[in-house]
Specification:
about 200 residues, globular
């Protein structure tokens, strides 16, 4: 009898731990990163040029954030539907103190492989701070006149690729939500692993 009770208790504890683990994973997937502090216009002192003929899409990324792989895949899917509709630059956080080429990760290579995308290093996240990006995967879409049209993430949850969400709506239809949550790690971490 005591052995049966112990087996039932052990089974219940195992089921509770599995259920709890799934709940924690689902919560983590659905927890957005820090929202941007974006301005409504392209910063006058930005070290990048605003495209005067089509929208400019900026994506800020951490080269070691595992969540950003889904963002890069979402960018690839977005541009498959919206090729040529925007000037696209991906800026990877870089910490020069960690050595030359630290920002050149597999995520950099994946972004650089997307047709029409320019990839640049962002030393110590200076440009990200100027634009108000705090989370890896934060994207900003500016109109040719410099007005911010949309800002946020390209994925519906951490590690789940999509087709660009709100950015896709803007590029295809010229309107959509002004904000979308961004799912990623902190942009300003220099560790050798995930931030």
């Amino acid at each position: 009898m005591a052995k049966s009770v112990a087996i039932i208790v052990a089974g219940a504890l195992w089921a509770a731990s599995v259920t709890g683990g799934f709940a924690l994973a689902a919560r983590y997937d659905a927890t957005a990163g820090r929202a941007s502090s974006a301005k409504s216009r392209w910063p006058a002192d930005a070290p990048l040029a605003l495209d005067p003929a089509r929208p400019t899409l900026l994506l800020f990324a951490h080269p070691r954030c595992p969540c950003t792989a889904a963002t890069i895949e979402s960018l690839n899917r977005l541009l498959a539907h919206c090729a040529g509709r925007a000037s696209v630059t991906v800026l990877f956080y870089d910490d020069p103190a960690l050595g030359k080429g630290w920002a050149h990760s597999s995520l950099w290579d994946a972004a650089a492989a997307i047709d029409g995308v320019t990839v640049r290093a962002d030393p110590l996240g200076a440009t990200a701070r100027l634009f108000g990006a705090w989370t890896s995967g934060q994207a900003f879409l500016f109109a040719p006149d410099g007005a911010l049209r949309c800002e946020g993430g390209l994925t519906p949850a951490r590690g789940h690729p999509d087709e660009g969400g709100a950015m896709r709506d803007w590029l295809l239809d010229g309107h959509g939500p002004a904000r979308a949550p961004v799912f990623g790690c902190s942009l300003f971490s220099s560790g050798s692993g995930a931030p």
